């Protein structure tokens, strides 16, 4: 089967076709880019329909040896962990391109970069070979650097350089960990990921811990986790709003996805550094929430809230139990929808008012009722209100954490209270009070903008009310992960 290759190479083919289109023909460029991103979304949905959630094995696998001596191969496959990420990546890319219609500068280069970024992201979630995974991981850096540096805000040069230096620094640690594992005899089990997973478990405990710490730094930069988050606020604030949707909605999940794979690969080391993981998770949740609460810039607030919400993912991973893992995977999807919707709505508001200072707004509900409704629903989901997918994810993580640490989860509750504080403050400042004179003539969301944001908000509410399909998608895979780690026995 070549369905995964078809999905992977669709955005790359779109980028190649755009190279041949004249840069002056902006309408054709937009049409081609949107068609190829839509084609990728449809292919991902087709995979989802054919995906068997009860099968613990890799599905739609493709395997073509590249270097038989090393064991590396062009190996693709999906399971219950990567399947929701593929759909999320293709959906957010579509919405990002729809939100880019107001862009008027270097349209051709922008759309090529977005499609190449999608190509890299899809490769990360499909790769079943660490060498291939690392290549796709690095591929995402190049287009994202140009997207921030060329189309970003006033401090875009500093933001793009910061992002690349942080991420490449983390990549060095990831590469060192991969090389440390590869020093051991790799039994050729079909792919480098499988054979390296076996070799990693045969390493001495001290080396396992050092290798996992290397992975933690490498993936922790991307997630991001405290104190490796320095690049995040500047990159989010300075990136174009459509790119912030991708950056927060899916690129941060690449770090969580990689860390989850490595924790399963190195269960002994994961047990040993479990106290460190839970400390980083809880501290990051409270720290990110407090910083979000202090912000006046709407984009900076959403950026710091991402630090807090990704702490929930880390807490789920740190629990090393079924409920926690399920909560981490659910939170990856939930945060993708919530952060994507918030950055989209903030970007659309900025286009109309050219200010992101929350103090400049009031009573937008009278001027922009559609915008007010969607933004309020998204902010309520961000604080984990029951009936939203954010609540389902945080509840699973809370239960998983309580099973492992009990009373320590009071700090989790504190972070939820802080997120409620900044969410309610934002709703109050944006939508209550007298209408300011400069805000009286703002246009409400147009039909295309309403469709793009409505899809994300609809997903937040739908999966909040009917979470079973989303939970069942990864249940079998989570069971297999725990079996590999020795945390669950065969029935």
TrEMBL record:
Keyword Transmembrane: yes
TM regions (residue ranges): 6-23, 35-53, 73-98, 110-127, 133-151, 163-184, 209-232, 244-266, 272-293, 300-320, 332-350, 371-393, 405-427, 448-471
Location of the NADH:quinone oxidoreductase/Mrp antiporter transmembrane domain: 127-418
Compartmental location: Endomembrane system; Membrane
GO cellular component terms attached to this protein's record: endomembrane system; membrane
Membrane topology designation: Multi-pass membrane protein
UniProt-listed Pfam families: Proton_antipo_M
Keywords for the protein's UniProt record, in alphabetical order: Membrane, Transmembrane, Transmembrane helix
Any GO BP: ATP synthesis coupled electron transport
GO MF annotation terms: NADH dehydrogenase (ubiquinone) activity; NADH dehydrogenase activity; ubiquinone binding
Cited InterPro entries: NADH_Q_OxRdtase_chainM/4, NADH_UbQ_OxRdtase, ND/Mrp_TM
Sequence similarity: Belongs to the complex I subunit 4 family.
UniProt protein name: NADH-quinone oxidoreductase subunit M
Organism: Methylomonas methanica
